[in-house]
Design a protein that fits this description.
Sodium/glucose cotransporter, 518 residues, single chain, mainly alpha
Length: 518
């Protein structure tokens, strides 16, 4: 066993023990359904900010998106990180955090489907939303497993990828089932600190590499770059140094919009606003989460943009998904300091993935236990039974995602983009308009959900039949952005044509009184 492997195993063992202890510590604070799902609405600004940021960025962002876009686009890919911080984080907190906290508290809503039922007085909408969440977040979660498993496979080439995915699944399940949202929130705080330290160290390491030569050397060397003969993704120095993405400008814009505006409708992101305790915590959380996203997002894509220089323009044997793992081994694989940093970076990527997994798992499990099953059962389900069922379904969802990820389905990573675009495309219109306008009707909200579903699903089917799924996968950012835009337009238009009745209008007016409360 090499020094790099030993150091990494020690770091992972310490990390695993810490996560398990937090889960045990949080068990006593998660004995009620509100405590398990939203921390009793008592989560502070710092913890909420890190929970939001760490859920936003997983290993797929580093291994997949940052590696791929940094390799193909160059420095222009950093705009994705900037867009995520400003649009996906700062603007989301400014526009939605306080309104979401107040309205969900008024409604007594713990989940996105629960919010839809109580805001629009529709049990059917609750069931539909719960089904969409459970079905389409499974491949999202599987993609995270896949990306992280591939990364550990590079450091430990003698160990099967599924072994690492199983370890990740087991660790996530332990502290999530034990402590619920409180456990995930406090582990997110620790994971977020690890992520910041890891990214800063990695940025310094890659910029110090002899092939990069610091920031000035990065610009000069990228500008002089020439692709090797036979390069499957040939490019030029002009492309790699074009701050606006050069020939990839359109592709860059769609990716910024998908990964930034997409957070506005994702239930695992919006759920962080349900739990935050007060307006003061929101003000702190807004600043902290934005700084976190700038550091992590811009750092990840900056690292990706150095990959062609560090690897000498040679795409690794494993393809796009092996770019960042190979860069890590090249930059940090030698010397005691480098190996120590490699161990830190591995824990960083594990932290990034587990924070995303825990949020997705809790969102999906609660969608079934709290929203779907009680809605279709004739008998009343007690909160204790719902909480027990949620814990069981957390385990089931982890198991399903693990099994799906181990099937070596080549489209799993592509399905993550579809999941992101489809789920957000379905929910963004009904969720946002429901916060801001009393005139939005149940039919209008239904139209928004169905328009998002049909936009992504229909376009995928048509393109796949004509040109194959790979062609549809290449269009997933455009589909997701289109679904979100259509949902935002359809909801108010259909609502204008189907006005609320007097009784419903009075009920909605009463709900909106929550904004006058402290």
């Amino acid at each position: 066993m090499t020094n790099a492997q030993i150091y990494t195993l020690v770091a992972l063992a310490v990390y695993a023990i810490a996560m398990a202890l937090i889960g045990c510590f949080s068990f006593g604070k998660s004995k009620t359904l509100d405590g398990f799902l939203i921390g009793g609405r008592k989560i502070g600004g710092w913890v909420s900010a890190f929970a939001y940021g760490t859920t936003y960025f997983s290993a797929v962002v580093f291994v997949g998106y940052a590696g791929q876009h940094g390799w193909n686009i160059g420095l222009g890919a950093i705009w994705i990180g900037i867009g995520n911080a400003i649009l996906g984080c700062l603007l989301s907190w400014l526009l939605f955090a306080n309104k979401t906290r107040k309205m969900t508290k008024k409604l007594g809503a713990r989940t996105m489907p629960d919010y839809f039922e109580k805001r629009y007085n529709s049990k059917g909408m609750k069931i539909l939303a719960a089904v969409i969440i459970f079905v389409f977040l499974v491949p999202y979660s599987a993609a995270v497993y896949k990306g992280l498993g591939s990364l550990f496979g590079v450091v430990f080439p003698g160990v099967e990828t599924w072994v690492w995915m199983l370890i990740i699944a087991a660790l996530t399940a332990v502290y999530l089932v034990a402590g619920g949202y409180i456990a995930t929130a406090y582990t997110d705080l620790i994971q977020g600190i690890i992520m910041i330290v890891g990214v800063v160290c990695l940025v310094v390491a890659v910029l110090s590499h002899e092939n990069v030569g610091g920031l000035s050397g990065l610009l000069q060397n990228l500008g002089n770059f020439e692709s090797l003969p036979g390069d499957p993704n040939p490019t030029t120095g002009t492309q790699l140094t074009n701050i606006f993405g050069g020939s990839s400008f359109k592709f860059l814009c769609f990716n910024i919009m998908l990964t930034s505006f997409g957070t506005w409708g994702l239930p695992q992101m919006i759920g962080k606003f349900y739990a935050i305790k007060d307006t003061a915590a929101i003000k702190r959380g807004t600043i902290i989460s934005t700084i976190f996203c700038i550091v992590i997002g811009c750092g990840a894509y900056l690292i990706g943009s150095t990959s062609r220089l560090i690897l000498g323009g040679q795409l690794p044997e494993g393809g796009i998904d092996s770019i960042i793992p190979t860069v890590l081994m090249e930059v940090l694989g030698n010397g005691t300091l480098g190996i120590t940093l490699l161990a830190v970076i591995m824990v960083l990527l594990l932290s990034a993935s587990m924070s995303t997994l825990e949020s997705v798992v809790l969102t999906s499990a609660s969608a079934v236990a709290v929203d779907l099953i009680p809605a279709i059962r004739k008998k009343e389900t007690s909160p204790e039974h719902q909480m027990l069922l949620t814990r069981i379904l957390c385990l089931a969802f982890v198991a399903c995602s693990f099994i799906f990820a181990t099937q070596n389905i080549p489209i799993i990573v592509s399905l993550m983009s579809f999941s992101w675009g489809l789920v957000s495309g379905c929910f963004i219109g009904p969720y946002i308009w429901g916060l801001f306008s009393k005139k939005i009707t149940k039919i209008g909200a239904y139209a928004g959900i169905l328009s998002g579903l049909l936009t992504v699903g229909g376009a995928t089917l048509v393109i796949s039949l004509q040109s194959g799924f790979s062609a549809a996968a290449a269009k997933s950012p455009e589909m997701g952005v289109a679904a979100m835009a259509i949902s935002m337009v359809v909801v108010p238009v259909v609502s204008a044509l189907t006005k609320n009745k007097k009784e419903e209008a009075e009920r909605v007016n009463e709900i909106f009184e929550c904004y006058k409360e402290a």
